[in-house]
Every structure is written in structure tokens, then in C-alpha cells.
Design a protein that fits this description.
Radius of gyration: 18 Å
Order of helices and strands: HHHEHEHEEHEEEHEEEE
Distance between the termini: 37 Å
Largest sheet: 7 strands, mixed
Oligomer: single chain
Structural class: alpha/beta
Strand content: 15-25%
Helix content: 25-40%
Low-confidence stretches: 182-211
Strand order of the largest sheet: 3-2-1-4-5-11-8
Number of helices: 7
Length: about 280
């Protein structure tokens, strides 16, 4: 097994373990609420030609969204009122199950809201389930608070952009600013939330003399699934441009996100970045 495959497997196992309890902790719910509010506040800034649905849910045209590392569907649920079809992809079969369970709770059909297990960073020949036409030509590809779990950032962005409509499709990523790299005043901001459960629990912690890739915090069991401690504005703009995006824009959220049982364990600022696939 390659090093990349091994890293993906660590993430798969960890998030399978936490899938059923992903949103249960109060602090995780707070993160998800704050991310959803930031998306609503900046929906026009994202730059998608959203649909306006009538009372019966019909819009007259399609707007298709792909949510990668979709988790249980938090971001997909936030944006579904403004799109017609959502496809989710996640490494974790447990997360996919929760995503599709949410579709049932929302009384949405699989055509409207459905996820499959898959890995966009793997060899495409091994990913036939997500290789069909329905997994291309999206109006929007999202990845929320999961990008720092992907070892090869360049490849990830390239694979995201490949799934977009040429000339109009938008890539939208939410992730974390590195500690000490805050750029105040740029704007406002799955919900990933790191709402970890058995075997991946931030509440458990490790010895205080060990340091986390997050910064000057005690290490946690999930550290083995984190590939990057955050991304600067310059890094994200370079990644999206290099992957074939134009009209790249960046916003930093004003409110810090608190990762931990007392919201003091880890406090980080988050950003949004968007870019449109070139012709």
C-alpha cells in the first residue's frame, strides 16, 4: 500500500468510528452553526447562479453540487435550498450512510441528495463508482474543513476542478488559517468540526508534553489524520490558480472556531476561497 493510500486509510478508519456521533457535541454544533451562517452571509460572494425554487420545490433549471469529504451532509443541507441536485463523496462508508440517512429525514430522493463512498485522490481506475457522467460537470464543488486532511493539495484541487463545468463551475473551499497568519478585514465568513468520537476523540487528548500539528496545543489522537496545519491566503490562491481556476477570491471569517469540549482547547480562524473553472 502506498504512503498516500495509508494516509487515506487512517482518515477512513477514524471517520468511520465517529460517523454516528459526529454532530453530537455542543462545541461541534457551534462550529457547524457558525459555518452555515457564514455561508448564508456570503452566498452571493461564492458566485454560483443559484436557483429560486417555488413552493413545490421546482426551479425550472438545474444547479448541481458536488460535496467532497461530505461527512453527514451539513454543508450540503445548508446549500440544498439553492441547488437542485447534490452528490456527496466521502472516504468513510459510515459518513456516507449518515449523509443518505439525512436525505431520508429531509424527504429528499436519491436523485436530489445522495452520497457514495469514493476517493478523488486515488487512481481513477479504482474509482468506477464515482467515474460516471453524473459525477462531472458540476456547477459547484465544495470541500468544507476537510482540505487539511488531504496530503497532496495540488492533486486535490486538480481533481476538484476536473469535476466542474468548464467556464462556469465554481470551486468553494472552507478551511483553517495557520496559527499566527490572521489577515483581519478580508471579510466574513461539513462543517468538519472534528466532532470526533470513539478512537478519534479530541476530548480524550494525549500527554501535555506532545504537540499537535494544529500549533501549541496538546496532541490528540486525530493528529495522525491531519496533513496540514492550515493554509495561507497566498497558498490557497496559488493552488486554485494552478489547478485551472480564474476569478479566485479569498475571505477570512471574523469569528474564531473553537475545537474542544470547553471551546478553549483549540481556537482557530477559518477562511473561504472560491474560484471559477476557466474555459
Amino acid at each position: 500500500m502506498s504512503e498516500a493510500a495509508t494516509f487515506s486509510e487512517k482518515n477512513r478508519q477514524c471517520f468511520d468510528e465517529l460517523a454516528e456521533s459526529y454532530d453530537d457535541k455542543v462545541w461541534a454544533k457551534d462550529i457547524l452553526r457558525d459555518i452555515a451562517a457564514a455561508i448564508e452571509e456570503n452566498r452571493d460572494w461564492i458566485g454560483v447562479d443559484w436557483v429560486k425554487k417555488d413552493a413545490s420545490g421546482h426551479s425550472g433549471r438545474e444547479v448541481r453540487m458536488l460535496d467532497y469529504a461530505c461527512g453527514p451532509g451539513n454543508i450540503a443541507s445548508t446549500l440544498f435550498p439553492y441547488v437542485t441536485h447534490v452528490r456527496g463523496i466521502d472516504l468513510s462508508s459510515g459518513m456516507v450512510k449518515e449523509f443518505n440517512r439525512r436525505a431520508g429525514a429531509l424527504k429528499l430522493s436519491p436523485d436530489q441528495f445522495h452520497a457514495l463512498e469514493g476517493d478523488l485522490l486515488a487512481d481513477p481506475a479504482t474509482q468506477s463508482a464515482i467515474g460516471g457522467e453524473e459525477f462531472f460537470n458540476f456547477d459547484l464543488v465544495t470541500c468544507s474543513l476537510a482540505f487539511h486532511h488531504m496530503e497532496n493539495s495540488e492533486l486535490a484541487c486538480e481533481r476538484f476542478v476536473e469535476r466542474l463545468k468548464p467556464g462556469s463551475g465554481v470551486l468553494f473551499i472552507i478551511d483553517l488559517v495557520p496559527d499566527g497568519n490572521h489577515h483581519h478585514g478580508h471579510g466574513h465568513g461539513r462543517g468538519h468540526g472534528h466532532a470526533h468520537g470513539k478512537g478519534c476523540d479530541h476530548d480524550a487528548g494525549l500527554a501535555d508534553d506532545k504537540q499537535s500539528p494544529w500549533g501549541p496545543y496538546p496532541a490528540h489522537p486525530t493528529d495522525s489524520t491531519i496533513a496540514h496545519a492550515g493554509f495561507t491566503q497566498e497558498r490557497m490562491e496559488s493552488l486554485l490558480t494552478g489547478a485551472g481556476c480564474v476569478d479566485v477570491k479569498y475571505l477570512e471569517l471574523d469569528k474564531e472556531l473553537g475545537f474542544g469540549p470547553d471551546l478553549a482547547n483549540i481556537k482557530r480562524r477559518a477562511f473561504m476561497v472560491r474560484g471559477r473553472r476557466a474555459e
